[in-house]
Amino acid sequence: MVNVGYYVAGPVAVITLNAPPVNAFGFEHRAAIGDAIDQATQDRSVKAIVVTGQGKGFSAGADISKHGSQTARQEPRAPTLQKMLINSGKLTIAAIHGFALGGGLELALACDARVAEPAAVLGLTEVDVGLLAGGGGTQRLTRLTGADVAIDLLSTGRRVYGAEALELGLIDAIVQNAQEGGVAFALEALAKGAQFTPTILRMPPGGDPGPVYFYEARALASRRSPGALAPIANIDCVEAACRLSPEDGLAVETEKCEELLRGDQPAALKHMFFAERAARSVAGIENIQQSTRIGRITVAGVCHKATQICATLAARGGYRTILFDQDSNQVVQGKATIAQDYAKAVVQGRMSSDEAEAALSRITCETRLDALSDTDIAIQATDIGISSRQSMLLALATAIPEGILATILSGPDIDALAATLPHPQRLVGVHTFPTRGSNKILEVVPSVETNALAIRSMMDLGRQMGAISVLSGNSDGFIGPRMLRRFRNMAELLALEGVAIERIAAVAGRFGMTDALASMALSDRGGSAQARITDTEIGDRLFLPLVNEGAKLLEEGVALKSSDIDIVCVKGFGFPAVLGGPIYWGDRIGLARVLEMANELSAIHGQDWAASPLLRVLVKECQPLSSFQSQAAAQLNVMT
Fold first, then answer.
1. I need a labelling partner for 523 at 20 to 30 A (CA). Which of 51, 100, 265, 482 fits?
2. Of 28, 75, 117, 126, which is the active-site residue?
3. Which string of b and e fits 253-276 if b means at least 16 CB within 10 Å?
4. Is-above-0.90 flag for pTM?
């Protein structure tokens, strides 16, 4: 419900953005903001306007779900609101708390000055969905901060907190309370007769750094995000702000924004945005309002993986963590390893010494099972045989009568492990764990007995650790490993046929997936294949089978949603986000092409490469793979 606030305190009018949950700029909200600005403009007693936000933050800008819609184009649009503030004849202040993102920050940049609370987060994040800050944001940000900062923030979508925003010149002051501080700032500025040059008319600090600088900036952006157009377009706009008049710079911004909107990448990245949200939605756990309250986590069994998990939980998650092993030498050595890792992180600038000391203080070592009784989640991390793992989990289940048990899986063992426990509903499997340097995906694998609370708790823990949690069915390989294995197997086949390793890596690199080959020992056999196969054919053979494998995952119920496969591949091992993930990409290029490749490969390499029956049906019915909804939720027997 839109309910923009308006009140006058002496010479200051306060306009409060209010469209829960994130004060997005839908049509009704924009219209109400415009009315409030007009009211302040017409009031001769008002000398300053403070714009602030109700609820959790200032504004997250445009509603991404409405991009391109008729209501998004209705006046007043966001640039119109900016012009109304600029032409009001009043001193204008943006008072920011919580967040000012995208179009929300653009509105703030159009004001004469900005104040923000220390915890406020600011960013022009349009690049994340393949666009740019097309409401004057690229021009105003550059003119406030200079080319270095503008390129950093615009080409990556990086967000900054209040203190850094002040240091970079993005805001003018830190305040403890946005609304009160904004009014106080306005009153002080009025009392001093302070004059503010409109942001769009300022000269970029540092001026024009020259063509070589921008050439190198584009090259770096291309290496970071191969094939992505939005980072380059943002850099073009920064260059325009440094070299051209405000009017011409804004014209370049509009032109570049329209070019991006005409392309395919914004739709693909919008798909990824909603895929990440969709991963959180799992039938059967949505009624669980709150997961287990996590106070203490035990990591059982000391090994390299266990120390990494323990260190990450204590440092990144801030959890009280127990490193448990019945061998006292092991736990002492394990904590020493963690201390060494923290010390290295301090030297490398990834942690402060105070952060390292605090994290280490949250880790305790235990060798007695009876010391684990107040554990909320116990993670069995050692890669040991199934019988040894069953024994360890049974001991943990006895020692921890009510906590959730998790085990790191490398195969389809979760049902066998659960069968030996007195309360199998408490056990949940996970594949990988979000530690430093690892991927950002946590695959949560329930047994047929796992209850909804255990699933929800592990998925929430993954998100709290900075990962995207995805529910996976029990199989030999789960989602990520099976997709990666298919990719690597084809790379190996190409190498065996004589395709140079460098060519395979170069084609994979154009898709941003060089790292997916990093740990492989490909053998370059040389030979006639070098002359017979083109780079396009190499790409088809590397990537089209991923779509077929995705169809098999959906058909088997290993993946619940096609978007889960896309998010795992993009965030897990580097499939380009600008293509929307392999399933989205496969639908766009045509499933008939995927089927043709599967038929060719199976004729040469056998049934393992054969087309999924689901793929055949969808091609026959001219339906996209993304339209298929797995029935795996029912098979998982998720219990509340």
1. 482
2. 126
3. beebbeebbeeebbbbbbbbbebb
4. no
